[in-house]
Amino acid sequence: MKYLRFSTWRHLILGPPRNPLSPETRRHILLVAFFAWVGLGADGLSSANYGPELGFLALGEHYSLAIFLALITAATVFIIALSYNQVIELFPSGGGGYKVATQLLGPYAGLVSGSALVIDYVLTIAISVASGVDAMFSLLPVDWQPYKVPVGLALIGLLIVMNLRDMKESIAILMPIFLGFLIIHIFLILYGIFAHAGRLPELVPNAVQDATAMADALGWWAVVSVILLAYSLGGGTYTGIEAVSNNIDRLAEPRVHTGKVTMMYMALSLAFTAAGIILLYLLWDVREVPGQTLNAVAFGSIMKDWTIFGWQAGTVLLTIVLAFEAGLLIVAANTGFLGGPAVLANMAVDEWMPHQFTYLSTRLVTKYGILLMGGAALAILWLTGGEIRILVILYSINVFITFSLSLLGLSVYWVRHRSGPWMRKLMLSATGFLVCIAILAVIVYEKFLEGGFLTIFITGLLILVCLQIRRHYRETHAQTDAVDKLLVVKESEPVANPPAPDREAPTAAFLVTRSRGTGMHSLLWVQRLFPGQFKNMVFISAGEVDTHAFGGDRALEQLEGQVDKTLAYYVNYVNSRGIAAKSYKSFGTDVFAQLTDLCEKVVADFPNTVFFASQLVFVPDSWWKRLLHNQTAFTLQRRLHIRGYQMVILPMKLG
Questions:
Q1: pLDDT of 370-393, one tens digit each?
Q2: What is the 3-state secondary structure (H, E, C) of 460-486?
Q3: Domain ranges in the chain?
């Protein structure tokens, strides 16, 4: 039996590689407003499956007050969405809450916001999958409940594979689920309201009567506290609104317009669905049933007596509705696989996170970010047992940390830049900030011992890790800068008649990067160890197209120019000393594959070649320092040795 190679299996599962330098590739992965609404708006819309339920249940016996909850929920959606339109305008390159906090409040505020966002996206995956599984299991016997967690873990694994292919392909697969959910729920909400339209006039009087009776017994502060608690615990409804601003760089041009249109779609669909579902709970006297979600109870009541050609179809129709709910929640989990890696990449560019999180796979997705998000979501789902009430508390706290910092940053910006309609924008962002900080404070106060402390601990721990990572990178830069000052000489002009390379002569090939000091370290050591041995010197550079370089055509041009300038420096330096030189370059996302191909070309041109590369060695050494720096030299050495080529690694000690 003939076995397929690993690379063949990878292409079958993840798809063939894409050329990052091709304009067609970038056009393929950009999202127009409609696709962005599906891919990014699903997170917000799906929260209508659990946010309204938790808020409604928090009212307890005072459920008549839910009419007020429905109104302020819809209003809050628009306040936050309109505020985040300002983020889209001010930061059209993406980054969302992380960049807003970093640039408007400072790097440490950005660190807090970014750390909260990373955990938020992990929880987006976990809570969406857990809620989707709850919807599916609402149709099954109660004794099937223990199987929910294994099913959830399997779904997360499937999403990891889908997103390793890329976001647009996963959207194409999931789009019918999104549209089916929206159409069915709009119909059911409208039908459910009109079917009990006679009860609408009594909702407000009943709520006022309930509030007055409660105030007479306990005081008006008790009324406000109950509504505020329900409003805060239903804060999961607003999660996902920030997804558009976080991923504006994934949208089709003109980005700002596309982002605003996407945000409008998201706000309208979420406000209508969330407020409408709360209204259905009231009109249909929905109460909690073990093993079922409130949505399952509400829609089951609405469709209980529906018939098709005289056949009772309520159960079948409810199955279809809940299947679409579960499907949409899986689509929403997908948002975590897009937003989380994007935040990690932005933080890695600023060196709060390991550089590896900026790397793109051959399918042009941030594979390490996807794997981290998926792995962390698997862990949190297993540790919490998929319990929605715990996950929502963990989730909401981090969401509103980011919301609060972003809206505070916008408020500070408009106070400092009083131009245009700044007062109107300041009032909007300040109102959004007060709403978000109030929700955050209530959730932390009320649920501190029920999961709030855990969120704060995990977020704080991540912040400490990020501080250590940045400290290490800064120390490394200081040390490599010192090497550059010591070893790098002034650039020389191109030699008029450089020596011609001799194909059969001994050749030294150097793997060089943007750090000229490390390249000169290798070159000088070779000249010292093998004086006069090598008649040709070859310089090899693989331009790595990461998330930063792939941010636009201009960034790619800068990368190419930087590689050309670096190679020209080495060639001119060697030629000026009477040695023949030649350079080789390539661009792509897989550095190892690029370098391996370039080395094979070098050997084809110069058969008597020995390869050399520098590798940073830290004193004292530790596993986490090695983790923060790629091991390109060692990996490439193994590949070349397998091919029968000689490669020498020259250690460059720092510390």
A1: 888 899 999 999 988 888 878 888
A2: HHHHHHHHHHHHHHHHHHHHHHHHHHH
A3: 31-387, 488-654
